[in-house]
Amino acid sequence: MTEQSKKTEFVIAHLTDLHPDGGVAFAHGVALARDARAQLVSFNAGDGAQARPMPNTGLLLESWGGAADSVPHTAVAHTCCEDPVDTILDGLRPMEPELIVAGTHQWSGFSRAIHESVSESVAVQGLAPTLVLPIGEPGFVDQDTGEVELDKILIPVGDDQETAAAVNSLTVLLERLGIEDIDLYLLRVGGDEVPESLLTPEGPGWRWHRETRSGKPVDGIVAACEELDCDLVVMASRGQDGFLDIIRGTQTQQVMRKIAAGLLIIPV
After folding, report:
1. CB of 35 within 8 A of CB of 122?
2. CATH level 3 topology of 152-234+243-252
3. Fold of 9-134
4. What are the CA-CA distances from residue 66 to residues 35, 122, 136 (Å)?
5. Residues 217, 181: contact at Cβ < 8 Å?
6. Domains 9-134 and 152-234+243-252 fall in the same CATH topology
7. Overall pTM surpassing 0.90 (yes/no)
8. H/E element holding 225?
């Protein structure tokens, strides 16, 4: 029997910089692990855990009115490489997480040139579906109550493989979380209308809508997210492909830098 066949638990990996309260990414990791009945692993790339403790899951759960031990939680500090992205990938691979949760600063221009986004770089590596949350924005988990408030999700439509990957991974997660009564928007930017034949799995109270926008893909996605007031955007990604992607970032990375909502990146 292989190690993969032995693995039965649903693992959520939370990337932490050891901020005392854990921040928005920690709150989302805890709430999602609770609702998905998953194991939460807080992961720090480095030896900073010797100086500062990992965020405390029990205290947060109790502040939400739950039991301190209701989420199985382990903390891992890992060192191996000079590059923090390589260190994170090296530490996460053996865990085989079903979901990675991370926060990111939305720097632009000169600030982005001098501050590399580690979370952004990890997200496009395709290790696992990765939920990236802009630091400074509330996300879709109420930090005072722990309630998951997912009402509207935007899914940009690419080619058949990308769209199938995004829809399949998203619906598996929604089912795992027990999400009901939600509007799901399939978006096509700068092309034909979203085909009626596109996969739209049925779920309790799941309402599928088709949207079109003109213009450039990134601008259309950002505008639709704002106009529809979406809580989450789901995009499939093949990672960086070529020199221009390295310089400008992929479309997924460009969207990540501009939206106030969380972005769930699905590897293809």
Report:
1. no
2. Rossmann fold (3.40.50)
3. Rossmann fold (3.40.50)
4. 12, 32, 25
5. no
6. yes
7. no
8. helix 217-228
